[in-house]
Amino acid sequence: MLEGLVSQESLSLNSMDMSVLERLKWVQQQQQQLQQVVSQSSNNSPELLHQILQFHGSNNDELLQGSFSQFQMIGSGFGPNYNMGYGPQHEAMDGCISRTSSCQMEPVDTMEVLLKNGTKEDRPISLKNKRKQEVKTREEENTEKKIKVEADTESSMKGKSNMRNREASSETSKETLKGVSEIPKLDYIHVRARRGQATDRHSLAERARREKISKKMKYLQDIVPGCNKVTGKAGMLDEIINYVQCLQRQVEFLSMKLAVLNPDLELAVEDVSVKQAYFTNVVGSSKHSIMVDVPLFPLDHQGSLDLSAINPNQTTSIEAPSASWESQSQSLYNTSSLGFQY
Amino acid sequence: MASADKTINTDVPEKDVFAIHFLQSLSNLRIQNLFNSPDTTNYRVRKIKKAAYVSMARAAGGTSRLWSRALLRRAAKGNNKIVRFPRRKRKVTWKISSKRRRSDQRAPVVEDAAERLRNLVPGGGGMETSKLMEETAHYIKCLSMQVKVMQCLVDGLSPK
């Protein structure tokens, strides 16, 4: 049994050459401990499984999850025990295991063998037949995608809520473990496969990605006016593209208008007055200090020049304003501020 | 369904920030004294449009947004300036090839619309579709703000 276990482990974990040797040694140690445990075990199946978990635990991440569903383990109690003390090795091996998800069945058999030896479980341990597993893809560890995907198939709902609790707690504990080496806050986006949908990793990741995109498109729908009436992704996207093109054309049109309206120097001069108008309209006097930074133009021979001098904060070479100028400026502020209200 | 969402952050500064940047860029144009010599309106138009875009990019987020970064780089290349941006990890070509290869299999309706969007939004060529959506949202907001500012300006300057 020991050799069989080890060989199957090595078969399934052969994708990472470097750590296989370490892993083998570790596995052997675990097997020895496990044998001790099995020999010492009581007939109480939950206890046995608990012990098996602690020693064998993170080595067979997915298979244990599969086996849990069959045995209706206590939910959240196993979570923290399950993951403690298996930090870095644990993650490397899990990453390895997840990549070889097709090999899951063999370790399951070995686990089946183990459990049969130690327990008086009379429920048929048909781990092979039942497809219910919790598939945790650890892509985010390797590719930094940061999507965690769980799949429930519809077949057996036993212990599903327990699974969820355990998964959540194990995730949080894993996250805290990972937090040491990686970014502290990893957001796992939980996606549940619906009834009758494929549960392999790629389609789940696809689905997660598609939901992300549709969420963002909903957000876009709120921004773009008139998008509510159109249904379906294609129409909405056409609307959005249309809107962007519209806005760009508007910018071009307005720049043409500006170029035509204000040839040569006048434009720069008007800047000052327009800035003042903005500030009186939009903000209080707090922004007036910015006016000091306004570049000072040679303000002569322009009618609207008077306005620039009226701003008290601005230091220009022009003389101090008189009362008449102030009234003129007020009128101009009013007229121009009308246009600035949206 | 999906939980643990990050709310999409597309905050756009107020209108006056855009206004300040635009007017400053216009005054820069004037200081360059370009308007004296060339007579063609087209030249001025192009200059103003470029100034509008550059000021919008600066006002909207400087180098913290992908599209603004691409815009500024494009503008600087036109002026033969060397622009330095703070380094960010960007595996552009790798991302494109890996995502695009599969992208045709993934919802072709969405993907060819995303292609068109990529042509419109500056810097869109290096983005994945979901990131593209975020950038588009922010870009739309900034564009509409810029349009409002320019409209105000035109209204203020046009003879009553």
TrEMBL record, chain A:
Residues 132-157, 164-177 have a biased composition (Basic and acidic residues). Transmembrane segments: none annotated. It is found in: Nucleus. Residues 197-247 form the BHLH domain. Pfam families: HLH. Keywords: Nucleus, Transcription, Transcription regulation. Its main location: nucleus. Residues 124-177 are annotated as: Disordered. InterPro entries: bHLH_dom, bHLH_ZIP_TF, HLH_DNA-bd_sf. PANTHER family: STEROL REGULATORY ELEMENT-BINDING PROTEIN (PTHR12565), TRANSCRIPTION FACTOR HBI1 (PTHR12565:SF442). This is Transcription factor HBI1 isoform X2. It comes from Camelina sativa.
From TrEMBL, chain B:
Keywords: Nucleus, Transcription, Transcription regulation. CDD domains: bHLH_AtIBH1_like. Transmembrane segments: none annotated. Its main location: nucleus. The keyword Endoplasmic reticulum does not apply. The keyword Transcription applies. Signal peptide: none annotated. It is found in: Nucleus. It comes from the Eukaryota. InterPro entries: bHLH_AtIBH1-like, HLH_DNA-bd_sf, IBH1-like. This is Transcription factor IBH1. The gene is LOC104782820.
